[in-house]
Amino acid sequence: MKKQHLPHKTCPVCKREFSWRKKWKKVWEEVKYCSERCRRNKTSISI
């Protein structure tokens, strides 16, 4: 599969779009954050 055809999501913390990764193959539906740094800073989300 080419990179341009991979699924994408938007990170709720940094608002950047990130792509599917092989390591997320089994848990893609559960992935919310683009990185560990964003996951740790999830409290900084302004609602």
Walkthrough of the structure:
The chain is α+β, with helices and mostly antiparallel strands. It has one domain. 11% of the residues lie in helices and 13% in strands. The protein has a two-stranded antiparallel sheet. A hairpin with a 6-residue loop joins strand 1 and strand 2. The longest helix has 5 residues. The mean pLDDT is 87.
For the record, give the distance between the C-alpha atoms at the N and C termini, rounded to a whole number.
36 Å
The coarse overall form would be globular
Q: How many individual helices?
A: 1
Indicate the mean pLDDT.
87
| SS content category | alpha+beta
Radius of gyration: 11 Å
Q: Which percent range fits the helix content?
A: 10-25%
Spans of at least 5 consecutive residues whose pLDDT stays below 50 are none
Domain count: the total is: 1
The overall strand count is 2
Please list the strands of the largest sheet in the order they lie side by side: 1-2
What is the H/E string? Answer: EEH
Q: Estimate the strand proportion.
A: 5-15%
Characterize the biggest β-sheet: 2 strands, antiparallel
Protein name: DUF2256 domain-containing protein
Pfam families: DUF2256
